[in-house]
Specification:
The chain contains 15 helices and 18 strands. By secondary structure, it is α/β, with parallel strands linked by helices.
């Protein structure tokens, strides 16, 4: 698999002398760019770099298409290599000249070299450009924006409407801090054979379709495992029920809920397919269950701590209050069985492993802890990260803001548990679970402004069926 550890794929095209790809990139850029600009006048910001030469080619193509295009040369004489574009020194813009740019649509083709990220001249250039009343579109990625590594709070970089990236997204596009600089990104010339970096992988529809297993003829409910969902309390019964629904709709053969007896009416009404295990029986042998989830809405009482202390003898999927118990009793971390799965959101993660300044630090900590504890960590966000004990980090690309509502994490926990019960490995269950969870919401959001967790659970069988068609 080709490794692009520094994700400057446009420069990769130059080094590979792949002119056919460069032409194809420009074609796709023009096709994606034109619908967003109407008949506005366009300014192209040209740097003395390979990206600048791409910008010139795009400018010339736009002119041939009868657009009004101006080119502006932005050169950092302290650091830039002057070998790419030859123009008179008088053609290079000063910061004062930049402030006079009138075009309302700009294409960022600057790309000062990486060692200018903290350079005063570059910083002032970016500030001047960002102060313009213009919509900015970036070639590959915004100038000044680090494609990997920590996105620091003091970072100065171009702020763009859309980044038209080449071959594959940059790792940092998936971190929340990127939203300050990139409103959206589109991948041009997508190449699924490329990895982001040796230990980073994109979880894609192609990957999920290859992993999913069709149901066999003559199979029965016993063929697809038995999940146990340990969760719920008097005032948070819904969390356990949503987790059970995730298990059911992901295809588990049998699902049992270990909830307070006070929740039986709700369980029998909402999910009559789910069986019941009383809390008094929780201290007995749990080995008959194929997969066990712990924590959704269960609380953090001393009794809950004792239940976790017993259940932890089995590999578990731990979420919500289960993670809060781990945070309060750190010794439990070393009791986790290899192959266990933890599914925290950002606050739960920091409570468990300490405060972090940015998402890059969180991934570094998660990678270290997953390897140390031999567990899988699903760090939930708009793009969830699945961190494996083998140092591989999967970035889940499905999902959207419409699913920003309560109960989504509970459903995801149930889905992963249901997939484990069906015989998928912990790694596969996490990858598939996150993808189909987000994909279900993607499908629902096509006709709805917002979606709720129970609707996402019900959409799962349809999503799996559609993905199976790709097998």
């Amino acid at each position: 698999m080709q490794n692009l550890s520094d994700l400057n794929q446009v420069q990769y095209l130059a080094k590979a002398k792949a002119s056919k790809y460069l032409d194809a990139y420009i074609d796709e850029f023009i096709e994606a760019f034109i619908p967003s600009i109407d008949k506005a006048e366009i300014g192209v910001l040209i740097g003395n770099s390979f990206k600048g030469t791409v910008g010139l080619k795009i400018a010339n193509r736009l002119k041939k298409l009868s657009f009004t295009v101006s080119t502006y040369y932005v050169f950092n004489e302290e650091t830039d290599d002057a070998s790419f574009i030859k123009v008179p020194n008088s053609a290079w813009l000063s910061i004062e000249n930049i402030k006079g740019i009138k075009e309302t649509v700009l294409i960022d083709a600057i790309n000062f070299s990486d060692n200018t990220l903290n350079n005063d001249y570059a910083t002032n250039i970016y500030r001047a450009i960002n102060s313009l009343n213009a919509k900015i579109y970036a070639i590959d990625y915004p100038s000044g924006f680090p494609t990997e590594g920590a996105i620091k709070s003091e970072l100065e970089a171009i702020k763009c409407i859309t980044s038209f990236t080449c071959f594959a997204p940059k790792i940092n596009f998936f971190f929340p801090e990127s939203a300050f600089f990139i409103n959206d990104f589109q991948v041009l010339l997508p190449n699924h054979k490329l990895s982001l970096q040796n230990n980073w992988q994109l979880s894609s529809e192609n990957l999920i379709s290859r992993i999913l297993k069709p149901r066999s003829k003559f199979s029965h409910k016993g063929s697809y495992g038995h999940t146990l969902i340990i969760g719920g309390s008097t005032y948070t019964m819904g969390a356990a029920l949503l987790s059970c629904s995730g298990s059911l709709y992901s295809g588990a053969g049998l699902t049992t809920a270990c909830i307070p007896e006070s929740g039986l009416t709700a369980l029998n009404t909402a999910l009559p397919e789910v069986m019941y295990l009383s809390r008094s029986d929780l201290g007995k042998d749990l080995s008959k269950y194929s997969a066990i989830a712990f924590g959704c809405g269960i609380g953090v009482s001393d009794e809950v701590v004792s239940w976790l202390n017993f259940a932890i003898e089995q590999p578990l999927i731990i979420d919500a209050d289960g993670i809060n118990v781990l945070s309060a009793h750190k010794s439990f971390l070393n009791k986790l069985k290899p192959g266990s799965i933890i599914t925290p959101h950002i606050k739960e993660f920091d409570r468990l492993f300490g405060e972090h300044n940015n998402w890059w630090e969180r991934i570094e900590t998660a990678t270290k802890k997953a390897k140390e504890l031999q567990v899988f960590i699903v760090l939930k966000n708009q793009y969830s990260f699945i961190i494996t004990p083998s140092d591989v980090v999967y970035i889940n690309q499905s999902g959207n803001p419409a699913m920003s509502s309560g109960g989504m994490g509970d459903v995801l926990t149930g889905i992963i548990t249901g997939l484990l019960a069906q015989g998928y490995s912990a790694e596969e269950a996490c990858i598939i679970g996150c993808f189909i969870h987000g994909k279900a919401a993607d499908e629902l959001s096509k006709t709805q402004n917002n979606v709720i967790a129970s609707a996402v659970a019900k959409e799962i069988p349809k999503v799996i069926k559609n993905l199976m068609k790709g097998n």
